[in-house]
Design brief:
262 residues; mainly alpha; two-stranded antiparallel sheet; globular; ABC2_TM_bact-type; membrane; cell inner membrane; ABC2_TM; transport
Length: 262
């Protein structure tokens, strides 16, 4: 039964959490500063974007915040989202030794990767909000809702990754195809350019790009202190339902083939 995926994620929730937290803690094992690199890397990245775009762009967009915060939020969000998908798509091959020895559901290994990057995304945004405040964008109580949007985006990534992880084992070329696709995919979204540069005829169809409404909602909350309307909530819910549902079906249909192919 395909809905057993949700039950498995719930049943192994402590296992998923422990392993995700362990991976985050040991991500830089062997280095002198260890876990603190999880803070220093995003801090350096945020400060680099802020400095570079402060020098390159002096005009203001979106009414209250400069382009440097607009592009930094887009690049950080997109970077973690796509890293989740790419790393997660390879998780069955990466953990093939464990999957051959342990009779554990395949999906919990994907969930562990997604949760790890969800924690990383929250670290990024804690530092980003601090930087944003220093640049004149005051903290708002609405920012307390930010984790909801970050988690919803990563649930979207979970659905996509469940599909890709199974296909990656059965069709090795998926890895190269995914890398090429993600490079092109970024340019179909307003990640590093304002969506106003797109013709109106194209902008009205952006909602057909799964991450778009999630990215727009995150930016609107931080830069404009605005919450999404019911249409945006509906679109996000539809995309999560479709991709997570497809992920459940693919897991149900292909999990035995994947185990035999590992």
């Amino acid at each position: 039964m395909k809905y057993s995926l949700i039950l498995n994620l719930y049943h192994y929730r402590h296992y998923i959490w422990r392993n995700a937290w362990s991976e985050l803690r040991h991500r830089y094992a062997g280095t002198g500063m260890g876990i603190f690199w999880n803070l220093l890397h995003p801090l350096v990245e945020i400060m680099t974007y802020t400095l570079v775009f402060s020098l390159l762009f002096s005009h203001r967009t979106h009414g209250i915040m400069s382009y440097r915060l607009y592009i930094t939020s887009g690049v950080l969000t997109w970077g973690v989202f796509t890293s989740s998908v790419q790393r997660g798509s390879n998780t069955f091959i990466e953990h093939s030794r464990y999957l051959k020895q342990l009779n554990l559901p395949l999906e919990i290994f994907v969930a562990k990767i997604i949760l790890t990057f969800t924690l990383i995304l929250h670290i990024y945004y804690c530092l980003f909000l601090l930087t944003s405040t220093l640049l004149g964008n005051p903290l708002q109580w609405k920012f307390l809702l930010l984790p909801i949007f970050l988690i919803l985006l990563q649930v979207l990534a979970l659905g996509m990754t469940l599909i890709l992880a199974h296909l990656r084992v059965l069709f090795p070329d998926v890895k190269e195809m995914l890398q090429a696709f993600i490079t092109l995919w970024r340019w179909t979204l307003p990640v590093i350019y304002p969506e106003e540069v797109l013709p109106e005829s194209l902008r009205r169809w952006l909602f057909l790009n799964p991450p778009y409404v999630f990215l727009r909602s995150i930016r609107a909350l931080i830069l404009e202190h605005a919450l999404p309307g019911w249409q945006d909530w509906l679109i996000m819910g539809i995309w999560i339902f479709l991709l997570l549902g497809c992920g459940m079906i693919v897991t149900h249909k292909l999990q035995h083939d994947v185990r035999e192919s590992l």
